[in-house]
Amino acid sequence: MIQQTVNTQLLDPSLILKEGEIKEGDTVADFGCGAVGHFIFPAARLVGADGRVFAVDIQKNVLSSIQSRARLDNLHNVDPLWADIERPNGVRVADQTFDLVLVVNNLFMVKHADDLAEETRRTCKIDGTVVVADWSQVASPLGPAPRERVSPAMAESLFVKHGFSLDHAFVPGPYHWGLVFRRTS
To answer: Judging by DSSP bridges, how do beta strands 176-183 and 124-135 pair with one another?
Structure first.
């Protein structure tokens, strides 16, 4: 429980989901969701029974944790999905499946950023939304070393190159930056 409280103070899931304009009936994906499901469970409640939330991760134990908690919370609209977000067609869903894709705290550690951005484009609906948030480049008590972090300008360049337009920037927490994109092509 302490872990979740700390995470909420670092990144407020309700703010990030609000910035992504999540709504009832949406199909949402959290790329690299992590074992806590920090965004998965709030998103599942917001999209309601007619929506779907895909917990996307490469670690099968992470997905088992998400699935167990979804059962405990009686959330039937959460779909754990084993996938490699850094490979072409690594997320095994049809093109243009998602209304909203979350890419949170992943850019600093990916090795194939172009493939991640392209897979995000492939799976996001035209006019769909992508929220990218990652660690600010200033020193902080948590997170990766500042030299490992990605700037918002680098993220903007990456996603624009792959068919997105920047809608707006926001501050998702004291140690993070956030960008909201729309898929244009």
So the answer is: antiparallel
- Domain interval for residue 33: 2-183
DSSP assignment of the chain equals -HHHHHHHHHS-HHHHHHHTT--TT-EEEEET--TT-TTHHHHHHHH-TT-EEEEEES-HHHHHHHHHHHHHTT-TTEEEEE--TTSTT-S-S-TT-EEEEEEES-TTT-S-HHHHHHHHHHHEEEEEEEEEEEE-SS--SSSS-GGG---HHHHHHHHHHTTEEEEEEEEEETTEEEEEEEE--
Mean pLDDT of the chain: 93
| Prediction pTM value | 0.93
Give which of 178, 185, 152, 180 is closest to 167, Cα–Cα. 180
Instruction: Give backbone dihedrals phi and psi of 44, rounded to 5 degrees, phi first.
Output: -60, -40
Distance CA 185, CA 170 (A): 23
- Read off the CATH number of the domain in which 163 is found: 3.40.50.150
Token readout for 168 is: 């707006």
Strands 52-57 and 78-82: parallel
Using pLDDT thresholds of 50, 70 and 90, give the confidence band for residue 10: confident
**Quick one: tokens of 13?**
């899931």
- Tokens 């243009």 belong to which residue? 96
Overall number of domains in the chain? 1
